[in-house]
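Example 9 (inverse folding). The structure is encoded as follows.
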């Protein structure tokens, strides 16, 4: 039987974030999310060829911390059973992934050809299939905040 130890109280100012285990912040993503929930940026559901999806922070990967490698392994099992949408935005002919890194790595590990995405902006390009959109503001909020992982 699984047992948990008693919770330990710690001072909030004693908590530290290790900057080497966090990706770079993507101000474009943050701005697009803010605009999308106000209805100023259209949100779509689309199937996108995986080779068109790339990370915002190219130095960040499962090699950064053992917990990220373990999360990628667990996520790889999930995406083979039930695809998980990634939150992306268009950048030229590419789609930037800056929040769903473990999902991206899992799809890459599983050699997926196409992946489901919640797209902040109109998805266009060869092999891109729009499934739904533009979504209503309420549906967009659900897709954005339900897809991050």
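The amino acid assigned to each position is listed next.
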């Amino acid at each position: 039987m699984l047992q948990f130890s008693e919770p330990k109280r710690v001072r909030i100012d004693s908590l530290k974030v290790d900057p080497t285990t966090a990706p770079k912040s993507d101000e474009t993503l943050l701005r697009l999310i803010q605009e999308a929930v106000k209805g100023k940026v259209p949100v779509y559901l689309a199937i996108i060829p995986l080779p068109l999806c790339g990370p915002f922070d190219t130095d960040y990967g499962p090699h950064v911390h053992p917990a990220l490698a373990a999360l990628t392994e667990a996520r790889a099992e999930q995406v083979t059973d039930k695809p998980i949408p990634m939150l992306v935005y268009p950048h030229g002919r590419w789609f930037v992934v800056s929040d769903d890194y473990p999902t991206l790595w899992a799809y890459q590990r599983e050699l997926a050809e196409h992946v489901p995405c919640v797209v902040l902006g109109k998805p266009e390009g060869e092999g891109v299939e729009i499934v739904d959109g533009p979504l209503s503001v309420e549906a967009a909020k659900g897709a954005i905040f339900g897809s991050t992982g």
